[in-house]
Design goal:
Elements lengths: L1 H27 L3 E6 L4 H14 L4 E5 L5 E3 L5 E3 L10 H11 L4 E5 L5 H12 L3 E4 L7 H4 L3 H8 L8 E4 L5 H10 L3 E4 L7 H5 L7 H14 L3 H10 L8 E7 L2 E7 L6 H11 L9 E7 L4 H13 L5 E6 L2 H11 L6 E3 L5 H10 L4 E7 L5 H15 L11
Parallel strand pairs: 1-5, 1-6, 2-5, 6-7, 7-8, 10-14, 11-12, 11-14, 12-13
Antiparallel strand pairs: 2-3, 3-4, 9-10
């Protein structure tokens, strides 16, 4: 066996070398390579930038990862990424080949890695981007990239292209990120959202962050795509499944608005959401929050509990997902009034919907937060289907 292994090692090394040379050739065939990293908004920004490039005349391939990974083709159509096992950053090599074989001018890919070392490997050995993007650097995934906020900034900085250019919307931690960029002889540019108007935002079919749009504009300016063309490209791009959408539902004389905000699971994102949309408890129109918990992230559970008690004021809270008992216990420890908390972990989506309707007198607002995975995605699909069954609603009447 030892002799066999010894004989195979040179073969494997040669095979790896040949494969890597093929990969480098494929990279050289793609003029623009954009690597999108960050704590929040990666999938949305990947789609927005791909929309900018398509509208600007670039033959563009894009790839999002996460719960519903997608390959987006130059005509804007897309298909699921087929995985036979768990996600692996080697998947990006196949995407590069696919884009090169399609004759793409540009490739926009969302970073798959969480581990700091893998983030750097993804950039320096696989994507070798011509433009880097770091959407933001928020205190999340501290168990992997932490333990401190500065460690998250340093980890995400691993995808800044050495000697290249990188755009970010991160204002609070910009200076540390900039120092990291300078250490790599790279230029970091802050994409300022002050250039994004309310009219720009109204043109989207969903609720898009001004910071994300600003990143699209920054890339457009860098590549010489006119602002109006870039905006049109972003507005016509298909939104990510986890995008902040609202669905209006009429159910046996009851009306509700459901907000898919399952991507809001860190304090900064949640604070933005609550401040921007002005969510407040109301006796006549109760605010119901559905919280999707994950058993594999106990640190996230504690973070969710703190957010629910400190930031999210609602009439009712429905706990769904896995290990909701731990979330319940954390809420008790945080001093939450448990009389308005409903543990529905392991319950079917239909039952969650029915409970929401029971808690709705005539009208209500329902907000899903925590995580889009698992039952989160099922809830979104169920509410969307119910919305499509409802009577047409005039959006202009609500000023949203």
């Amino acid at each position: 066996m030892e002799l066999l292994i010894a004989a195979l090692i040179p073969v494997i090394v040669v095979w790896w070398y040949i494969e890597y040379r093929h990969h480098i050739r494929n990279l050289s065939r793609i003029k623009i390579r954009i690597h999108v990293n960050g704590t929040r908004g990666k999938s949305s920004v990947t789609r927005l930038i791909a929309g900018v490039l398509r509208a600007g005349g670039y033959k563009t391939v894009a790839k999002t990862t996460g719960t519903l990974p997608r390959i987006i083709f130059p005509d804007g159509t897309e298909e699921p990424v087929v995985r036979l096992g768990p996600p692996n950053i080697h998947e990006q090599v196949k995407v590069v080949k696919q884009a090169a074989d399609l004759g793409a001018d540009a490739l926009v890919v969302e970073c798959m890695a969480l581990q700091p070392d893998y983030q750097e490997v993804s950039e320096r050995n696989i994507i070798k981007s011509t433009i880097g993007i770091i959407t933001n650097a928020r205190p999340d995934h501290l168990d992997v990239m932490g333990p401190k906020e500065k460690d998250v900034v340093d980890a995400l900085s691993g995808t800044i292209p050495p000697g290249g250019i990188c755009f970010t919307s991160e204002k609070i931690r910009f200076e540390r990120m900039k120092r990291n960029a300078e250490s790599m002889k790279a230029k970091l540019i802050l994409a300022d959202n002050s250039d994004v108007t309310s009219e720009d935002i109204k043109g989207f079919s969903y609720i898009e962050h001004a910071d994300n749009i600003a990143l699209g504009f920054a890339v457009a300016k860098h590549l010489g795509v006119p602002r109006d063309i870039a905006l049109r490209g972003m507005q016509t791009a298909e939104p990510d499944f986890g995008a902040l959408k609202l669905f209006r539902i009429d159910f046996f004389g009851k009306e509700t608005i459901f907000y898919n905000a399952f991507a809001a699971n860190d304090p900064e994102s949640t604070g933005w959401l609550w401040n921007t949309l002005g969510f407040k408890p109301s006796e006549s129109e109760p605010l119901i929050v559905i919280v999707n918990n994950r058993a594999d992230r106990p640190s996230r559970t504690m973070q969710l509990a703190n957010m629910l008690t400190e930031q999210i004021r609602a009439n009712e809270y429905i706990l769904v997902g896995t290990n909701t008992r731990l979330l319940w216990e954390e809420l008790v420890r945080e001093g939450m009034d448990m009389g308005h908390v409903h543990d529905m972990g392991g319950i079917e989506v239909e039952d969650v919907f029915e409970r929401c309707m029971e808690l709705t007198p005539q009208r209500s607002i329902i907000v899903g937060i925590g995580n889009i995975g698992g039952i989160g995605g099922e809830i979104v699909s169920y509410f969307e289907a119910r919305a499509n069954m409802s009577a047409p609603h005039d959006d202009s009447a609500d000023g949203i």
